[in-house]
């Protein structure tokens, strides 16, 4: 992956929204590669929804610099309705540029409320590498 022209800010380094966008792209690519492309979410009438992002910066990323974006499971409720994913963005020299922790759940696109995922979708999330500080989260379903 590369930091492109549209990813840059006025200070000539990767903008905060670009970091969030790269993390979101990797999440959606992971889901698509594991049987959940957008067409499947439309068919199921559910989708992943992020409720909170926490972004920490460590190094600048310059225009056209190669980056690597990781994805790991940092937390999950027992029913799978709430999750915390961690993406780390590394520069081409291997140095950590940013860490993004995203907390989310599964939104029923018809009822517009949070729901539990199917067992197969939950298994997909559980197949992710778990961070050392992985935690059990409360359910999002009331």
End-to-end C-alpha gap:
39 Å
What is the highest CATH level, the class? Alpha Beta
The share of residues in helices is 10-25%
Number of E-state strands: 7
Order of helices and strands: HHEEEEEEHE
Question: How many domains in all?
Answer: 1
Largest sheet: 7 strands, mixed
Show unreliable segments.
none
Structural class: alpha+beta
| The CATH homologous superfamily | Hotdog Thioesterase
- Give the oligomeric state of the chains in this entry, treating copies of one chain as homo and distinct chains as hetero: single chain
Shape: globular
Q: Give the number of helices.
A: 3
Computed Rg: 16 Å
The CATH architecture can be named as Roll
Average pLDDT for all residues: 95
Q: State which percent range the strand residues make up.
A: 35-45%
CATH third-tier fold name: Thiol Ester Dehydrase, Chain A
Pfam family, one: 4HBT_2
Organism: Pseudoduganella buxea
Protein name: Thioesterase
């Amino acid at each position: 992956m590369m930091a492109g022209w549209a990813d840059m800010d006025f200070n000539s380094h990767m903008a905060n929204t670009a970091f969030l966008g790269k993390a979101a792209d990797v999440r959606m690519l992971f889901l698509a590669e594991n049987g959940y492309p957008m067409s499947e979410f439309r068919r199921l009438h559910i989708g992943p929804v992020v409720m909170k992002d926490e972004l920490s910066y460590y190094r600048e990323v310059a225009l056209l610099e190669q980056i690597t974006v990781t994805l790991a499971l940092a937390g999950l409720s027992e029913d799978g309705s709430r999750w915390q994913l961690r993406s780390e963005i590394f520069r081409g020299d291997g140095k950590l540029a940013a860490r993004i922790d995203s907390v989310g759940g599964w939104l029923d696109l018809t009822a517009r409320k949070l729901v539990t995922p199917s067992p197969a979708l939950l298994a997909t999330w559980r197949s992710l590498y778990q961070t050392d500080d992985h935690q059990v989260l409360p359910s999002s379903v009331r």
